[in-house]
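Structure tokens please, single chain.
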Amino acid sequence: MKNFSKYQIATAIAILFHCIGFIGILFFKSDTFIKTTPLNLLLMAGLIIYTQKKINTSLIIFIAICFVTGIAVEIIGTSTGWLFGNYSYGNALGPAIKNVPYIIGINWFIIIYCCGVSMYMLLTRLTAKLSEQTGKPSKTIKALSVVVDGATLAVFFDWIMEPVAVKLGYWQWLGDGEIPLYNYICWFVISMLLLFVFHRLPLDKQNKFAVNLLLIQAMFFLLLRTFL
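Here you go.
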């Protein structure tokens, strides 16, 4: 009997739960599936931790920083409109503090971590090939690539997710309902700051499941964006 790796098991679970969610939301139009989103995100965060080769203090610190930062900027955003624009959360994402669901902090961790790991692993492969031809790339250039390119990837993911999240009642944009460019600018800046922390902390940045999860979630929202 074949022994499956942690990455394969976690990826299979992620695909299964996202397929169930996709079918339930698209074909059954049931609020039940939408309201399970917090549990799904908690499961995905748990699978990230499960597939980590090394769980150290740095990882816990990074999770805490993403959670606290995510909740803080969202509270500022919903309360003042100074960040992201004028928007408010619905009831679909569960318990909240100052009208911001706690699960949003976990979501910030998942997105930033998956984007950071994806760019780090991609750059590791690219730099390995380049070093054979042109010598070892600058550490500064590699750091900038992880932070800037990772933030760009996070913004792109948010762009995919936004229209679907509004339709599912996760949150809504006030005024004319249009998603402002300012939202993506803020996403980029905050993502850069968190990815800088990601780069500096000595945590394990090699996690195939994190890359797979980013692709699974992107496909999930792309399909919903197309057919919902």
